[in-house]
Amino acid sequence: MTFCYARLRPVALPFARPPSAPYRRRVPPSTTVRSPALRVALRGVGRRFANPDGSEKVVLRDVDLDIRPGEIIALLGPSGCGKSTLLRLIGGLDRADDGDVDIDGSPVQDVDQRCAVAFQEPRLLPWRSIERNVELGLPRRTAKEEGRGQVQRLLGLVQLDHAAKLRPRQVSGGMAQRASLARALSRGPGVLLLDEPFGALDALTRLTMQDLLLDIHRAEPATIILVTHDVDEALQLADRIVLLGQEPGQLGSSIRRVLEVGKPRPRDRADAGLAILRAELLELLGVQSHHPENYITRAIRARRAEGAGA
């Protein structure tokens, strides 16, 4: 697990304002992968929390999911449905009351070192330069020369090699975001956990950072599990979208649907197939898309009829 403050607090993926310079898509052609992407398996996972009156609140129940190595999974659902709780269980930041959480065939340990977690806030140490902040994520006992090379390579990957010696107060919010992402990757995690990493961004910077994440995934192909409230973001990034929610008459959330996006990346944001999936997801989330009778509504009815007949 990657930490950002004296190795005691989880790394944050910071997003506050656009980068000072436009992001140019550039992935080093010969990137060495330090850690293979790992499989994640959830079996009957449940989590409960105590209420002040002594009763229990069931947050998650009967969660079963297999995540393939190198896959990008988006966890989608209404607020309070347990998306972030599930992410913490996978990273070892919390412990399930029921079921098993395995990474690469072995149980998740407390603060599992095979994972890196990134949240919304930057949490860069203000007295350290950008490169020295990235160094904080390196595994212990990393050789000095090896660590320096890894940091420089990651700074180049996120387009910050020119800002290596600057302090956080001297860079824009977008640049700080990229530094935090580099720090999360510096351990070479097999599983990268992202909890609403683009939630604080303006719309244009959000799109830019989505492209950056895909570039990084090609260069550092970890398994990525992403919590988001943004349907379009899930459709742009994920191989599969896992919809969490509470079924009528049941306590706690479970997996309601798993949708395969089925489109190669990078994806055309105006793709008609994505528009159909978007309307279907919004409907499952209880949001009316207000489409007139057209190819989208007909496609949704056809998919629903196909599912009912299966």
Q: What is the structure about, briefly put?
A:
This protein has 8 helices and 10 strands.
Structural class, please?
alpha/beta
| Alpha carbon gap, first and last residue | 42 Å
Number of strands: 10
Predict the CATH topology of the largest domain.
Rossmann fold
What assembly state would you assign to the polypeptide chains in this entry? Answer: single chain
Number of helices: 8
Could you say what the CATH architecture of the largest domain is?
3-Layer(aba) Sandwich
Number of domains: 2
Biggest sheet: strands side by side, in what order?
Answer: 6-7-8-3-9-10
| Helix and strand pattern | EEEHEEEHHHEHEHEEHH
Instruction: Estimate the strand proportion.
Output: 15-25%
CATH top level label of the largest domain: Alpha Beta
Name of the CATH homologous superfamily of the largest domain: P-loop containing nucleotide triphosphate hydrolases
Average pLDDT, all residues: 84
Largest sheet geometry: 6 strands, mixed
Q: Uncertain runs with pLDDT below 50, 5 residues or more?
A: 3-33
Topology:
Elements (H helix, E strand, L loop, with lengths): L39 E11 L5 E12 L4 E5 L6 H9 L6 E6 L2 E2 L7 E4 L11 H6 L8 H14 L15 H13 L5 E5 L7 H17 L3 E5 L3 H7 L2 E6 L8 E7 L11 H13 L10 H15 L1
Parallel strand pairs: 3-8, 3-9, 6-7, 7-8
Antiparallel strand pairs: 1-2, 1-4, 4-5, 9-10
Helix pairs in contact: 3-4, 7-8
